[in-house]
Write a structure and sequence with these properties.
The structure is a homodimer. Chain A is an alpha/beta fold. Chain A has helices at residues 15-26, 39-49, 73-82, 138-151, 160-189, 199-208, 214-217, 221-224, 227-236, 241-256, and strands spanning 7-11, 30-35, 52-54, 66-69, 89-92, 108-114, 131-135, 155-157. Chain A is elongated. Chains A and B meet through helix 5, helix 6, helix 7, helix 8 and helix 9 of A and helix 5, helix 6, helix 7, helix 8 and helix 9 of B.
């Protein structure tokens, strides 16, 4: 069986699957097939990519150079148990799933994790997104680097442990941060304002990360030990128990730093 | 007594006092005097501004148009008890202190609160910083608007209650956010990485605030209900009790949203 030089199949039809495959196609890698458990989704993405939808893992073209598994974290191991290819480089795109979960899929396996939140209408410049890569051999790594290089200019090698730590840190710096924005927005709504009023402040705080470590940039009543202001804030939050608990926890953590 | 047209005195010599007075001077408002309890600080800032240092509140020139009290939150009320001027517009620059604390200082009082973290070496474009203003009368407000207009293009009227809510929301969106960056940075250090690897992710999250409310932008294992990943994260944090407590609190809060 002769391998096509630049072909891939996509397993999954969500936002990450779609963005990666569109980006690959744009950069000269032909998407042959799209697999999804949900027929309709496979057909929709396949249509967008001018690829063939497939509904059984056994129907996947073994001549493809790359097979990209871009499904929910839980679903990766299911695919890992069933998918069997020979020489295709099979990678998953999860931040938390170990490479081992897909080790039986092919002689050549790896991970290609985009360190970015990818939502449906993300207008992403893929070139800017750090891609964390890992592979099961030097040969696989070299192939994976080619694949990753068509997507981004920032390729970082990270084994599964390192990738998990990075993912966990992203949950704090990104997901939890966004929840703090939600709390701020809810507080501002009562005054008929919204989070946009805080954007210059937030942007400055983010920009300062380029220069200093965040612990050096810490400001605010907790960092200053401004007890009167802290007391006033807790009073303002007295009917909002959960938010008050977060306020207390952070104030104490910042003061102990 | 004849008022000078564009003159101000500064009470305080910290970062906010310095940045505001430099900016005023740049925009044609002459700084006559700098007062500070700490002689050395008054002299240093006065020298930079080519102003006169004063060490007693009674020494403040009553002919100045503006008197800007830019001291720590706790010190505003002390100044409020002692400073007595007649027609000078006296304002403080605090996010949390009520305007009433300085009501005896003059017939014309107000608040000029820059909604930005101002540190020593901040390279600030003052024009971008939202300024929250409040005044004790229509006349004072009109004078304060002129003063604020020389500093920024974004002037927002906010009474003391509204300003306090905005300040509290900024503590969540800015100070606490920075603490999450610190946690992320500490986790990454163990893998010889730092927070910079997460900057594209963080910047995207901030940019999305321009379009949607943050609750609509929430992503991550908590928002997805990805129990396996959450369990794995808690395991990774098992020796880091305080950080684990923050993880649990946020995961629960996001899931209840």
């Amino acid at each position: 069986m002769k391998n096509n030089k630049n072909t891939a199949v996509i397993i999954g039809s969500g936002n990450v699957a779609r963005h990666i495959s569109l980006q690959l196609q744009k950069n000269g890698i032909k998407i042959l097939q799209v697999y999804s458990k949900t027929k309709k989704n496979a057909m929709l993405l396949a249509k967008e990519l001018k690829a063939t939808p497939v509904f059984s893992l056994k129907g996947i073209d073994p001549s493809a150079n790359y097979c990209i598994i871009s499904v929910s974290d839980d679903a990766v191991s299911e695919i890992g148990k069933k998918l069997r290819l020979k020489n295709t480089l099979v990678v998953h795109t999860s931040g938390t799933v170990s490479m081992d979960e897909i080790k039986k899929c092919s002689s050549s396996t790896g991970v290609l994790y985009p360190l970015q939140t990818i939502q449906k209408n993300s207008n992403l410049s893929f070139k800017e997104i750090p891609l964390l890569i890992e592979a099961n051999s030097k040969t696989s790594l070299s192939t994976l680097k080619k694949l990753a290089g068509t997507l981004s200019a920032k390729i970082i090698e990270a084994d599964s442990e390192k990738r998990k730590t990075i993912h966990l840190s992203a949950v704090f710096a990104n997901n939890f941060t966004n929840h703090l924005f939600t709390i701020a927005n809810d507080l501002l709504k009562k005054e008929k304002l919204d989070i946009k009023i805080l954007l210059p402040l937030i942007k400055q705080t983010v920009e300062k990360l380029e220069k200093n470590s965040p612990s050096k940039n810490q400001t605010g009543p907790a960092a200053r030990g401004d007890k009167k202001t802290i007391k006033g804030h807790l009073k303002m939050l007295k009917e909002n128990k959960k938010v008050k608990a977060i306020y207390k926890m952070f104030t104490s953590a910042i003061q102990k730093k």
